[in-house]
Amino acid sequence: MDVPLVLTHFLDRAVTLYGEKRAVITEDREFTYRELNSRVNQLSYGLRNLGVEKGDRVAFLAPNTVEMLEGFYAVFQLGAIMVPLNIRLTPDDYVFILNHSESKILFVDQDLYHLIKPVKQKLESVEHIIVHYKNEETNETDYNVWLANQEGSAFKRAEIHENDVCSLLYTSGTTGKPKGVMLTHRNNYLHALSSMHHLRVTDQDIYLHVLPMFHVNGWGAPFYYTANGATHICLKKATPENICNAVKNHNVTVMHMAPTVLNSLLQYFAVHTPSIEQSVRVVIAGSAPPPAFVKRVEQELKWEFIQVYGMTESTPLSLISTIRSQLSDLPMEEQFSIKAKAGYPMIGCDVKVVKDDGTEVEHNGKEIGEVITRSHGVMKGYWKNEEATMETIRNGWLHTGDMGTVDEYGHIDIVDRKKDIIISGGENISSIEVEGVLYEHPAILEAAVIAIPHEKWGETPHAFVVEKNKGMVTEEEIIAFSRERLAHFKAVTGVTFIGELPKTASGKIQKMRLREEYWNTETTSGRFVN
To answer: Which tens digits make up the pLDDT trace of 82-98?
Structure first.
């Protein structure tokens, strides 16, 4: 008889093989895998007592905590569906997502309760709100008190099939209302097996939760690190200082984060020079960093840099940039360039870069096309949105909306989002390439490039820049710097200095907001670009 690929197996395995090992360490508590499992059972009993049944949606609005981690497995035991919420949305966003998903129960961290309180009356399906770390002023159910009153013995699970939806993840909604991505047990299970192989996950790993668990389940961290009996370090606030202290104090061996977060760590290390002796792997996804950035991480921090690529709709990972054995003799500078790319397909993933007519681009690192993938991780579809599902998944292939090239070794390099490609005088310009050059300037801390209108060329690149120290560089100097290092049509034609780049909770730069800010400034100033 076939064993169904359901995610509850992963915690079962950890309890059987690593029951007395430390599973989770928080700021003031720690639990073994056996203790974590007991808490999961208590939560499952509590949810069942509240009327949660198979297929019901249970939402969590929380940072990286043990309460968030145990929520996945407790919800799964009921055959219910986990709805992790982005902690950086507005109250109205939560109204839409909770009502659209028809979530029955909402767990919320006390620090985030202020986002729910003003819109409680607008929640149409939520029957109970339960608060983690509740204070005396909040008039809701206290999670710890409620959990302590639940039974902790083995829980009789619902009958779960591998193609059942296990999680409903809402995309950021930068172009309209968020869409709920339906991922199944099978999606996450097979993705975990592939990812744990490529990321070399073992029971000796100590994993620091930097990337939020609501971000595609923190790239599967609740699954494949648990399956291997690794230790989870939960960090509610991922500041550079907190990350550094956790890495040092807990001998952390692996972290996942966005490039912007890693950049902030580089700045922190440059000032504080902490001593970290253990080997550390840092897994990065998002905009491709320049090779110089990879070099700094590996030579200054002495950490192994692993670039990956994926999206929520593919569970998420499809590509990885580690150096294959036949390329290990290449010069180090070329290896850094390869590591900065999105990479080659992971096991179980087919990935192509295609032109508008569907044919593949030449493997010359120059011809640009859209990245498409088919794999065990491709979503079941968008929740209650068949039209968007059919638009995204065509002939079995997930169309990512990302534009890329393929080099002679078969490595895919993401050059931009389809909507972020700058077309100037008929030439395609990658905003990521321009940003990579700007990051080489010693005065620039962060940079993002967007397209702005130009009377002659149609569009030209415009940079938003965060300085390391205010007043260190002028707009003219940055323009000249980019013209020295890029073909002139790719160079920036203007610069806006900004205190901080707008980012998602996972650290991804929100270019939509930069475009809005640019247009608002231009409209109010009465200026135009020529």
So the answer is: 999 988 888 988 999 99
Which has the closest alpha carbon to 417: 517, 307, 485, 510? 510
The answer to whether 99 and 31 have CB atoms below 8 angstroms apart is no
In a domain, 435, yes or no: yes
Residue 23 has pLDDT above 60, yes or no: yes
Q: What is the rounded CA–CA span in Å between residue 150 and residue 142?
A: 13
What is the reported pTM?
Answer: 0.86
Whole-angstrom Cα distance, residue 195 to residue 372? 19
399 in any annotated domain: no
Q: Please answer whether residues 193 and 185 qualify as being in contact, where contact means their C-beta atoms are separated by less than 8 angstroms.
A: no
Domain boundary among 139, 166, 184: 184
Q: What is the percent of the chain where pLDDT is above 70?
A: 96
Query: What is the extent of the structural domain holding 463?
Result: 421-525
> Does the residue 307 lie in any domain?
no
Residue 229 predicted with pLDDT over 60: yes
Query: What ranges make up the beta strands (E) of 190-310?
Result: 206-209, 231-234, 254-257, 281-284, 304-310
- Closest of 493, 457, 454 to residue 475, by C-alpha: 493
- Residue 515 domain-assigned (yes or no): yes
